[in-house]
């Protein structure tokens, strides 16, 4: 039973890794994707960007010299991950309910 479960987990991980497209820079990915190095896998891969009105994470870090995003992808082009900013008890700014929205300028 344990061997079967271990095999299924391994098979699932292999299937997931085969579904990802490896990349080295943003132009290797589709327009609605980013080249992401999430620090858990050995190679960066193409991941979908957050779409309009989707919940998002403001933790996307872009390193221009490597042309890679770290931790998570940003929103699709022309959209920003925005929410209501509040300050916690330690003085850190915390974004509540962030979503990809088109900023008004």
Automatic annotation (TrEMBL):
<protein>
    <submittedName>
        <fullName>Cystine knot toxin</fullName>
    </submittedName>
</protein>
<keyword id="KW-0732">Signal</keyword>
<feature type="signal peptide">
    <location>
        <begin position="1"/>
        <end position="19"/>
    </location>
</feature>
């Amino acid at each position: 039973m344990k061997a079967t479960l271990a095999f299924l987990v391994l098979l699932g991980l292999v299937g997931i890794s085969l579904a990802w497209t490896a990349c080295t820079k943003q132009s290797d990915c589709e327009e609605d994707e980013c080249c992401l190095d999430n620090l858990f896998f050995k190679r960066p891969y193409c991941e979908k960007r957050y779409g309009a009105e989707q919940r998002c994470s403001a933790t996307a870090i872009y390193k221009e010299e490597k042309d890679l995003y770290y931790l998570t992808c940003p929103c699709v082009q022309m959209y920003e991950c925005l929410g209501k900013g509040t300050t916690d008890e330690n003085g850190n700014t915390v974004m509540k309910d962030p979503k990809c929205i088109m900023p008004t300028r």
